Amino acid sequence: MRETKVESFNFESIGVPPKEDTFKLSFFNAYNEESKSYFVVKFDISLESKEGFSLSLSYVAYFEGDSDLDDDFKKSHFPKVNAPAIAYPFLRSFISTLVVNSGYGAVILPTINFQALSEESIEDE
Q1: What is the DSSP letter of 103?
Q2: Which of 5, 28, 46, 85 has the most crowded Cβ, counting Cβ within 10 A?
Q3: Could you give the CA distance from residue 29 to residue 83 in angstroms, rounded to a whole number?
């Protein structure tokens, strides 16, 4: 992984917090035709917390290979399973730190089994 960046971010205090945290996560890969040796994993997250805030953000992890990424690589497990699994802990840490530094109680995002998600998406197809 080369770097991570927050693309968009929204954090608000909510008047009536939910009884339980509501967490939604989606992610996908993107490739650049101009620079064929790198790709990104983009995460979109929304969270409504019983701590009294809502948060939504787009978070991007940049990965770079030693050579151009061919179709075999793009179809492999690395961009769909391994790369998100590598980047997600950085996203979890960012959110945990941000929430605590904003004056709210600690919120730790759930762990995600990206292998199981990949297998589910294959079954859905």
Answers
A1: T
A2: 85
A3: 9
Output the pTM of the full model: 0.89
- Residue 79 · residue 41 · CB < 8 Å: yes
Segments forming the whole domain that contains residue 10: 3-124
How far, in Å, CA of 47 to CA of 125, rounded? 28
pLDDT, one tens digit per residue, over 8-23 is: 999 999 989 899 999 9
- CATH code at 120? 3.10.420.10
> Would you call 89 helix, strand, or coil by DSSP?
helix
How many domains are there within the chain? 1
Cross-strand pairs, 31: 39
Instruction: Name every residue whose Cβ is closer than 8 Å to that of residue 55 and which is 6 or more positions away in sequence.
Output: 9, 10, 11, 12, 45, 46, 47, 49, 95, 99
Question: Which pLDDT tens digit goes with each residue over 24-51?
Answer: 999 999 998 888 899 999 999 999 999 9
47 forms beta bridges with: 23, 55
d(CA 82, CA 77): 6
Enter the DSSP assignment of 77.
Answer: H
